[in-house]
Batch of 3 targets.
Target 1
Amino acid sequence: MESQILNIRGMTCAACAQRIEKTVRKLSGISQASVNLASEKLFVEYDSSTLELSAIKAAVAKIGYEVVEKSENANVTIPIGGMTCAACAKRVEKAVGKLDGVINTSVNFATEKATVAYDPQKIRMSAIRAAIEKAGYKALEVNKADAADEDRARKQREIKTLWTKFIVSAVFSVPLLYIAMAPMIKFINLPFPAGIAPMEYPLIYALVELLLVAPVIGVGYKFYTIGFKALLQRSPNMDSLIAIGTTAAVFYSIYNMFQIADGHFMAVDALYFETAGVIITLILLGKSLEAVSKGRTSEAIKKLMGLAPKTAMIVEDGVEKEIPIDEVEIGDMILVKPGEKIPVDGTVLGGHTAIDESMLTGESMPVDKKEGDQVYAASLNTTGTIRFRAEKIGSDTALAQIIKLVEDAQGSKAPIAQMADIVSGYFVPVVCVIALLSGIAWYIGTAGDLKFALTIFISVLVIACPCALGLATPTAIMVGTGKGAENGILIKGGEALETAHKINTIVFDKTGTITEGKPTVTDVLTTEGLSKELLLQLTASAEKGSEHPLGQAIVHGAEDAGLTLLAAEHFESLTGRGIEAKINGEDILAGNRKLMAERDISLTGMEEASDHLAGEGKTPMYVAINGNLAGIVAVADVVKESSRAAIEQLHKMGIEVAMITGDNKRTAEAIAKQVGIDRVLSEVLPQDKSDEVRKLQAEGRKVAMVGDGINDAPALAQADIGIAIGSGTDVAMESADIVLMRSDLMDVPTAIHLSKQTIRNIKQNLFWAFGYNVIGIPIAAGLLHLLFNGPLLNPIFAAAAMSLSSVSVLTNALRLKRFKPTTGTR
């Protein structure tokens, strides 16, 4: 299976998004298709062996929408110094144009810039610059726009175009509305041009209105081209509603204009030009405000994209050279000075510094880096100069993976959105039917009053708002997941975001989650005839081959004590129990009580000491030599500062907290007592952790598992929500639904709180969207007039309400940007 994100243009409402989804899902080989109206993206998963991406693009294009292709080629603008005439420009053009990999070159002498389109797979930017230098001119600093800048520029152009259309529309529709309404307001003597008085010069009055409405219809032409095309293809959208309503108003008005010309002067009261003009103006205003708000919902992605530096300083043959970030290759040696950003991921080769990784982990304190340490793209070098080898570039960097996770999450749908999707699919056709039936019913009920019936028909069409339904969920998810990313919490999708707010039990892994995961040796107890140094030396020598944190702690303890480690003749790791090794001909067993019981080794004489150590929160490791108990090496893992505060916050939220560990019961209970754990699951083997989660689920609980995302992978996958704690290097862990970029457990209640706030926001949006349409459509259909002889809804007010409904949903979603992380130890 392969997944792709396609940029879609031409969508105007939820009906458009639904149509694209249905069309793509019908294709053979499609596993999943989801359209995000707010971000204008199609997220598709398909079997590439049976379906080509080009077929998906063709299916989308066939129903009238545009798939915006991402160019494989790069475009760059290079300022050039030293040109004195047009011949110079021609010379540069020729020098660059003949390079292999350059597709097109254009040099503008007036601006002194060269615009070059090239294939980055065939040629580096440095080669283009070198060709310019060789021709005798100076290639100045490159100004290359990245994807975030291009997207931002495109959005700004769209917003500017919409505002321009609105202003033009308003310039003509305001006087149109004035001359239409002023003669009707009898109680105020408003000034009015005598030459177009409706009662004296009805035909001139009608012609002036037609001339004023024409430019408005002109700037709103897309409502008609898109709306009627969708109608002809039997999948009407919001534009169809506007097109039908305003067209009916204009044609009815033109018909009455001919009636006036034919001598029926009273037909001047049945002109609807101002209705059409003002409706289009208000819709354009709504669309402009909507575009601005939609742009703000994706700010998190833009911020992340904007973090990466544009250039890198590489060292080749001892010479420093600055190149665009896109030209960095794996293996390049990169130099980073104080105050500069790390351009790509890699390993430090030389130098020492402190790096601010807050953009990745949210941790404000800089991290010391020396030879052999990892550095990550977009983090900030604060103090020293370092050289490092580029190991991950482009889409492989930790930052790029974070961006992809956030993009995928923003494109996903929460289960709560399903009802809105179903309604959206039928919404516009149903509204068209309601409008038509209402108009006919009132025409019959009023004995042929066409003006009355037309008012009802247009009002129903323009008050209906499928946009509000389509934007209710994705905008909140976009802002919520983006806000999470800003705080080091990566939520992988809408489903995870929704499920998190239902969690009532959280299971924490102990080592490395509740505790620091860096245990140290605290006690060494031996039987008679054996020194503590020898026991520690033998145990550490046996544990040298182990990767378990407790084993590594014993090794470090022996090294700190100045003991020489002996070579092991044999080593075997016994999962969940300990290790077995042969040192200098001696058979060494080191592990927990379960291992000793398996090998029938008596613990007599050490049980009381063991219980005492466990009661202090230390982990006693029994050591046996040649089948006889030799002593205990006790190791303690320090509890994180944030653990107690985080668990207190979870208790305040009404969530039960459990701890799962392979440690013995007494040790586990001692740690649990320190931090306020409700339930302890001790002496659990790694492979059995998922079973313990399953047992809790069988009790009817919604369970979240918090672990390191590697050893706890089965349990993370089994839980309703898997929460992985990571340092930012494993952001693409498949087993977890939520990834916490730092090791601060306060991010767990923050993630739950963010989920609750986002789902609450979605429910508010859906309530408003559904409520608006449920109340607005019957009122527009004349229900109040029928039941209470109340007023009719003027189509102009219907259009205003329709525009504001979408804006209100977006504005409500943007309130999530004020979300603050849960406070505790921070």
Target 2
Amino acid sequence: METALKVLRPPPELTISDWADQNRRLSSEASAEPGQWRTSRAEYQRGIMEAISDASTETVVIMSSAQVGKTEVLNNACGYHIDQDPAPIMVVMPTERDAETWSKDRFSPMARDTPCLQGKIADPRSRDGNNKILHKRFPGGHLTIVGANAPSGLASRPIRLLLCDEVDRYPFSAGAEGDPVNLARKRTVTFWNRKIVLVSTPTNKGTSRIEAAFEESDQRRFWVPCPDCGAEQLLTWTQVRWSKGPEGDHRPETARYHCADCDAAWRDETRWAAVSKGHWVAEQPFAGVAGFHLNEIYSPWVRLEAMVRAFLSARSGGDETMKTFVNTSLGETWVETGEAPDWQRLYDRREAWKPGTVPAGGLFLTAGADVQKDRIEVDVWAWGRGLESWLVDHVVIEGGPDRHDAWSELTALLDKSWPHERGAHLRIARLAIDTGYEAPAVYSWSRAQGFAQVAPVKGVEGFNRSSPVAGPTFVDATEGGKRLRRGARLWTVAVSTFKAETYRFLRLARPTEEERAEGAAFPPGTIHLPTWVESEWLKQVVAEQLVTVRTKRGFAKLEWQKLRERNEALDCRVYARAAAWIAGADRWPDEKWRDLEDQLGAAPYGDTDPAGQIHRPGQAPQGKRRSDWLGRREGWF
């Protein structure tokens, strides 16, 4: 009876920040500053936790950089509700692995070291099932921890407190169930006092989940008074300045923040003291959604010298590394450069190599197939280290998917091999085929060929650099007129990601002939086009452009629009790139690349393999497994 009354008792007049200051203890393995929690250490966290505590606020959105303590805010919200206001809680992480990591490394130490939580969650060594890694029970509620890639976890039970971390890293769809954030939101509809917290560093402008949620909020930003003149201001990167040496070399150790009003230079300690006196200001009317934006300049754990070093490194690394800085340090969305390269410039940069031959740097082949009403177009690409690539073949199979011979010709292409410059023969490691036209026919053919070599793909708009290809998911297929449930495997491809990457790679500066003669290499990602490729193909590969459009609700959205009707070359490139991702090229360690080089004889003559064994071009080192992508030829073994 006493336990029941405690559950029914209304929550105390205690905010999450008050609870954390009184009870929370930081663990040594989860924090650089173990001991009693102090909200004043990062004063901006107080307003965020008060918003989560506020009954009039249904949704809280935190769009921020890394290193501002946003995950600890979620931890405090969990601890508060377990101790003071029991409820069904769900924490959603990008993947199930992330969910397990958070449970083991962040939540469990907090539950162990915070005295008021001890005894409320069962001992993990007990056998009653009340404390599992991803599901924990406590009096009056439970905590479920799931990955956004697991639809069964998202749809499992009603939830009152929903905490979603790093939502911009979520897949486009949880299996075949749709957007994981919307799936999780549906778990809260039965609770009148539900609370939804969305947290993330942003990604690309127009496609970022957290940016879209922030734009629907009251958009609060943290204003800080200048210690010298008292002028309140937002802390921005443009006010961070540093000196240069006599020879123009940058000196990050001299970095200071300069007041936007009086130009007073703040040292790190001055900046941290100023932040402790700041306050949140909403830029839009409040309508139940509180939004917060922060960058690393506000963080008491980050020195400006480190930020400047990160910036200089990112700037020298090009768009890819600069995007990381903008997202994770400034907490801002990245605007993709989607201007189409000039096809005539690409025509002038074509390179001569023997038609149908794989150049020396190519280590494996993938293909992209675009199914049209009256033909199937296929481009075969060779890939090397750093995703350097070469167009090896362009095939047009006449006749649409209703023509049996067209599928036979496509099947024959899977068995074909292309001679490598070093003497070997290569087959297609993976072919990605579009399912946008006549999907049942594509599924049936792919099933017959085997999904180890063929990957049916479905393109979706949007950017997702961390995981541009999702899947596979099982879909129904038809074989001999009979419907086979879950008979095919479908991969989902964020085509915007690979289109932008292709344009970025096409624009890369190349070393001159003199520089190459002195040993300069092509930059990673360089796309090599052969002299046999025609102007029509080049026009197709640059047939789209990324533009910013406005939705009906007035929000900015990035959208690819055609500059000309035909764009098959670009689509085939995207599918071939997706096939390389599916094959694992983006995640291979150096040993894998070295193994392929060894088997093809692509390493310098007489070079040694990782085991120190001397080998010759065309000779596979002893003890190495020969790649299935290498075609048989006389004298190979």
Target 3
Amino acid sequence: MSEKRERQQLYRSEGIKLLYSNALPGIIITFIAATMLTFTFIDNGQRDGKLLWWGTLCTVLVWRLIDTLLWQRCSDKRKHERGFYLRFTVGCLLTAVLWSSYFCLFERHFTVEEFTATVVILSAMVGGAANVLSGNVILASLYTLIVLLPWSIILIESPLDYKRSLGFLGLFFTATMIFSAIRSATYIKQAIALKYKNQRLVDRMEDTIRERTQKIYEISYKDALTGLSNRVAFQTEAEELIYQYKRGEIPGFSLFFIDLDGFKSINDALGHDVGDRVLLAFSNRLAAFQDNGTLLCRWGGDEFIYCTPQVDHGTLRNLAAQMVKSFSQPFYLREQEITLSATIGIAICPEHSTNLTRLIQIADIAMYALKGKQPERVLFYNHQLEENLRSKVLLQEALNNALARHELRLVFQPIVDAETFAIRSFEALLRWKRGTQIIEPSVFIPIAERSGQIVNIGYWVLEEACKTLAHVPNDDTSIAVNVSIVQFQDQQFVAKISRLLETYHINPGRLHIEVTESLFHSGQSDLTEKIIWLQRKGIKISIDDFGTGYSSLSVIQNLNIDFVKIDRSFIQKIEDKGLAIVEAVMNMSHSLNFRIIAEGVESEEQARLLQRCGIHYMQGFLFSQPVEMVDVFRLAGKTIPLPQAS
């Protein structure tokens, strides 16, 4: 709608409002004036005519009064209807005609008193109408002309001088009242226009405030990327569910704590822009599971919370399985196919807790406990999970001070020549004794890697190994040290290795670095460059636990790996399918020029079978348990007294 049309409608609606707002006082004054005029001079003649006139005017006034009351009682929307304007106009003009007719019909019978009273009353009615009817200039002008013009003309034609003078005065008064009505109407119109402008300004301000309020709400309660509820909004909404449960309105609800697996590698490899699109696409898939009573939240990063009124374990497990299936479908982003998975931890109110913060915490604990464990993707919280996590946290804190308290030490397991059983090298193995408690490496090494403490611990192991090498009398004996991928990622790794070799005057060929196959699966080119540097330096490189991870012959070939250690799981099954694996790796070693070490050799039968395969080196309890540092000096270069294979 155009602004001009809006203003016209506003003028009409405001004009109708002004007319009807002043109508009731005008009707009452008209009735009083007409009654006084009629019955004061009723005996001057034309009694029946005056009574008829008065009755007609009262009928019009009653009709106008009813119309006014109807207008006051109707809705604001209907008050602006054109019908009200037409009825008011007709009623007002009929009243003007009746006023004018009184003078025209009865003037020749007027006494001086009645003549004077009539002229005064008519003039007063016109003067009042100029203001009362100022909401409509045409109506105010017509009212003035109808009431004053007829009797002014009659008086001008009178033979009496004073009446002619009054007639001309009436014409002048008519023009003056019309001019006054026009000025009043103009003023009213300007006031309405000003009100219109103010209203538009207020409306714009309200729209602006509404928009900004909405933006503030979205900033405060919506996640900017996904549009899902943020932490603040979710906690507010979920607290209401707690209250509903406590009031007995709902049986409870469940929280799914969802974490994307492998999302960090997407950000690192493809950039945060792609990562953001993945999060948005993931949130859309999550939203597909939204139903009545469910709440969705991006908790932070690649963590999401799904809240459902369901509490049945079977229903929840099926729902979570459907989610996992949906989330594992590829994402297609700008012709890129990206496949992720998600881990879900579930906590239930009231089964696990009725405190929202606690429910979120334990759902997170369940998710964290399952993280990285294939193929399971869904886990309900149980108390043991928290106990395990608490133990890991306590161990992590204790591990911070393990070096300072001299709780860590190295032991060394011999690696023997497969033909002669002479000890050629040792593998340095880390041990932790906390008071009287022996902590297994399989327990504390993953904790150290996750916390980053493995870097400092790893350098301590390397330095202790180099100290030991420096005092081993046999120059042909080497020591192998396991190095974590976390340690490889340290920018100072190469420099520190070089400094250790120089400090302890170690022949680089006597230091063997053992890495797991997962190192090459990380896809980080700088790690490969560090391995190449170590090889150029003369340090030997071994792949540990070969066959259990990312096996890649191209890596062995391109990096010219020195040793491959066959995992103990294959050696334990060597009399079954393990022998075929050993023979296959042995055949590859001839082509790719690497040496093979068999781990976990525990029986003479295993040793004989390995000898027949032509294996190069063996390591296991058959030859020796891990020994202390002092025994390394004694055993270096010695031969294990075992019978040769026949």
